[in-house]
Design goal:
By secondary structure, the chain is an alpha+beta fold. The chain is built from five helices and ten strands, in the order ββαββββαββαααββ. It is globular, with a radius of gyration of 17 Å.
Length: 176
Amino acid sequence: MNTPTHSQPPAVHNPRTTASQVTATAWAEALRRLEAAEIFWVSTVRPGGRLHVTPCIAAWHDGALYFSTGRGEQKAKNLAHDAHCALTTGTNSLTDGIDLVVEGTAEAVADRALLEEVITAFETKYGPHITSPEGTFHGIGDEFRSGDAVVFAVAPGTAYGFGRDHGVYSHTRWTF
């Protein structure tokens, strides 16, 4: 598993009297939230430099976030041109929670044994959404196996946590 080499103290904005008690988010807590998050936003760059941001599902496995896209989809085209990307997840609250951003380089998964591990990680995480015939993503494992969908691994290069604790905001950066 990737662990950060260091964590900077959080930058605190809108401090209140208890702001001195704000601490950096521990990587273990960030990782717990990455593993539990159901929806991510993947940001890629088009060949002309414009950004492309779309929602996706992703699973953490063995030090990387994994997501997929169809071979002809814009994400796949963008990553073929520039493999740098970011995956973002978090909460939709102004005062509580933490938003996480994982920046890294997407690498297509070609190893069949690793692909099976990733399929198991997706099935474990998303359960009936993938394993049930009525599931939104039923059959995704077969798409991974056939190559109809490209599976990408993004090992974090840098990750950020933007915390909110009843209106006290913190920013933690992890480098790997």
